[in-house]
Amino acid sequence: MAPTPLDPADRPPANHVMRELRGDLSPGEFAARVRRAGREIGEHVSCDARYIGRVEAGEIRCPNYAYERVFRHMFPGRSLADLGFAPRGTVRRRVGPPRGEAVPHAAPQHRTDEENDDVHRRTFMAGGPAALVTALGLDQPAYAAPIEHRKVGPEEVAVVEEAVRRIRVLDDRQGADALFDSAGRSLREAYLLLNTGYYTADTERRLQSGAGELAISVGWLAHDSGRLADARSFYAEALATARMADDPALEAHAFCNTAFLARDTGRPREAVRAAQAAQQAARDIGSPRLLALLAMREAGGWAVLRERASCEQALRRAHHYFEQGARDADPEWMSFFGRAEITGLEAQCWSALDDWTRAADLATRAMRLQDPHFVRNRALYTAELAHDQLGGGDLAAAAVSGTHALELLREVSSTRIKGMLAGTVGRLRRHRGVPEVAEFVDRYDAAG
Fold first, then answer.
1. Predicted pLDDT at 147
2. Residues linked to residue 109 through DSSP beta bridges, in sequence order
3. pLDDT tens digit string along 1-34?
4. Do 398 and 356 contact (CB within 8 A), yes or no?
5. Which of the four pLDDT bands, split at 50, 70 and 90, describes residue 182?
6. Which of 238, 263, 272, 376 has its CA 20 to 30 A from that of 278?
7. In terms of DSSP H, where are the helices of 136-179?
8. Burial classification of residue 281, based on how many CB atoms lie within 10 Å of its CB (0-12 exposed, 13-18 middle, 19 or more buried)
9. Does the global pTM surpass 0.85?
10. Is 110 helix (H, G, I), strand (E, B) or coil?
11. 384: closest CA among 407, 409, 401?
12. C-beta of residue 93 within 8 angstroms of C-beta of residue 116
């Protein structure tokens, strides 16, 4: 049955102020400017052209608090009303009955947009598998009708895309171990929609991209939680989706993570080939920062192969691209790739080449550059520093860094980082005559 057209009287008024503020920029260019402004004040908003379109059409009558802070930063001195939005307290949204259940005479229930967003955010940020299940809507009953009878539209695609963003945020703060099983459920749901739903060509394109990005996110959770065969399978699924969708950005991302996994699992030649394939896929995307990350992935493979000249060449290329700065074409998933990350990745290269002093210096610098809310990366760089200090023969310093990493691992759960730290502990045990080493080993054993 075709949807009933919306009565013109019920349509929200367009936001002409925001349209005027966009000026000659395209919606995508303006969305990129919003994202950049968010990064300037520490707000990671997932703004895209569709969101800008909804704002200008009046569908978003009042932004959530994160977007409000970003808009006020972009346009100092303007209130929400000055930006064309309705007062927060006047915005209401109907919460309808469950799918398939008609309640024609029931009094409508309402919740403000901002209240709904804030509750959703608090539920999500509370952490743990149950929180992720709730945040992604996976604790709801199964569909009343078979999924093959369901039309898939922008609303369903938006849920898939938001799942990707939320998984990334939780991983930054908590690590992968607690998230993998729940995130896998959201991935199965996305591919059910893709394989058995029916949709327009535009929806198919977005759904393919969203499902592929979700497969990569779940693959990373598998990688970081020690499920390496699962990770390889998820990345292969994402790559197949990218090829079928003719999506070079998704293909580059899948190859990027494949290269990372290959390096970590003792297949450095594959890491180099995958990184080079990623660079080929990304050549026309227009993102120097993406090319910088992919060159770092290639450098990591060369370092494990102990091909120092090839590694240094890839490192130079990575820094050349990185210094060209951020661009509007930078993929959203690359928000983690800043100065701290490229420094940490270079530290790994010199560590693999046994240049312990340079590796330790870079790991220390990466720790200092890392934003505090990226707890997982701080734990990673600290564990790497302990490994590098031990490689250089500074037992006491390695033990102190190991102790700091152990403290950070109380906040995040990453099998990969735990494995790195366990290797350092194993090599330090025979040096318990050093007081700092004895204290660290005792703390590690007590932590279980």
1. 45
2. 95
3. 444 444 555 567 899 999 999 998 888 889 989 9
4. no
5. low
6. 376
7. 154-174
8. buried
9. no
10. strand
11. 401
12. yes
